[in-house]
Amino acid sequence: MTRPDDWMMPAFLAQLAAPGVQLVRAVSDGRETVYLFDADREAFATLTADGEQWNVRQGGPVAVWDAIESAVTGWRQAGEPDITSVRMEVTIEAHTYWIGEEPALRWKHAQRPLAT
To answer: What DSSP line would sit under the chain, residue for residue?
Structure first.
């Protein structure tokens, strides 16, 4: 399993796949837990270290960790391209990001209107 804090591309991909997610890390009794919260979509994922393995629990209307894992898997299948391969299109409606032709490496983030 990919760690949510792997650098550089996996962490960047996580932000593209789950843009509203906040990450909190905690260690208790020598055991690490990573919490991913998406308050806007009322979704979460909890990753708990168990030796070399990570146990995942997620809830809410979207599967936060599944989205991140899918992006990282697609990135690996595409040969782990570097940051210079990321493309972006900005319109009034959305920001669209993609890497190559891999469908798992395409994200469209709707733009929220600015408060007046």
So the answer is: ---TT-TTHHHHHHHHHSTT-EEEEEEETTEEEEEEEETTTTEEEEEEEETTEEEEEEESSS-HHHHHHHHHHHHHHTT---GGGEEEEE-SSEEEEEETT-GGGEEEEEPPPPP-
Which residue, 62, 86, 78, is CA-closest to 13? 86
User: Mean pLDDT in each 10-residue stretch from start to end of the chain (116 residues)?
Assistant: 56 88 89 90 92 91 93 90 91 92 90 72
Predicted structure pTM score? 0.80
Are 65 and 48 in contact by the 8 Å Cβ rule? The answer is no
User: Which two structure tokens, joined as six digits, stand for 70?
Assistant: 């899918």
Query: By C-alpha distance, which of 107, 109, 106 is closest to 91?
Result: 109
